[in-house]
Specification:
about 220 residues, alpha/beta, 5-stranded parallel β-sheet, 5 strands, binds thymidine-5'-diphosphate
């Protein structure tokens, strides 16, 4: 099957199950003969992975929101140039676990930096790079944090700074993702993540079939 290369990002709060869904989707796309690159943020290139370590470990108030946003933008610029663009140019589909909407929601809305300020920083760092499709997995705060805590043992090196933010942070975050989806319905779709893995995966595939003319 020949398809134009696609850049698809996955967003949501803590414990929404993004990584499981991304892996399942990658296998399904590969079964359609599509070459897929799986990547993640913060990180996704060797230099950006170094910045990831700085961001995710340590005390909750380790960074000012502005410093966090600048580090994330620096990591993202590298990730885009050295990983995402080359993969798209080679005809692969890129599935990315979190992208710039996370900075809008975490640093801009929940972190209090302001959405416009984060947009301005991103504009300087990487211009208008835009996903073709953004899947937002939506889940209540209680369920999301319970799931995130239950997988804590599997996480490497205590990369849990953001999970330890307070409940109002996570409430603001959830609303911020819903607001992004409402503002850009042609790019974003919201999926109810309070469901079985199979059901959520089915919903994601249906959206791809419709929006990416995959069927
Ligand atoms: P990760 O362990 O990948 O968590 P998750 O499974 O929830 O994606 O950690 C990524 C963390 O980084 C997550 O808590 C959200 C945060 N983050 C930001 O605050 N801003 C960003 O721009 C990105 C990409 C992530």
């Amino acid at each position: 099957m020949t398809q134009a290369a696609r850049f698809i990002t996955f967003e949501g709060g803590e414990g929404a199950g993004k990584s499981t869904q991304i892996r399942l989707l990658a296998s399904w796309l590969e079964s359609h003969g599509i070459e897929v690159l799986l990547t993640r943020e913060p990180g996704g290139s060797p230099s950006a992975e170094l910045i990831r370590g700085l961001l995710l470990k340590g005390d909750v108030d380790k960074w000012l929101p502005i410093s966090e946003a600048l580090l994330l933008a620096a990591a993202r610029a590298d990730h885009i140039e050295r990983t995402i663009k080359p993969a798209l140019a080679a005809g692969k589909w890129v599935l990315c676990d979190r992208f710039y909407d996370s900075s809008i929601a975490y640093q801009g809305a929940a972190g209090g930096l302001g959405i416009q300020r984060v947009r301005d920083i991103q504009q300087i760092a990487f211009g208008n790079m835009r996903p073709d499709l953004t899947v937002i997995l939506d889940l209540s705060i209680e369920k999301g944090l319970a799931r995130a805590l239950s997988r804590e043992g599997a996480k490497s090196d205590m990369e849990d700074r953001f999970e330890r933010m307070d409940k109002s942070f996570h409430e603001t975050l959830r609303q911020a993702f819903l607001d992004i989806a409402a503002e850009e319905p042609e790019r974003c779709c919201v999926i109810d993540a309070d469901n079985t893995i199979e059901h959520i995966q089915h919903s994601i595939r249906s959206i791809l079939e419709k929006r990416c003319k995959l069927a």
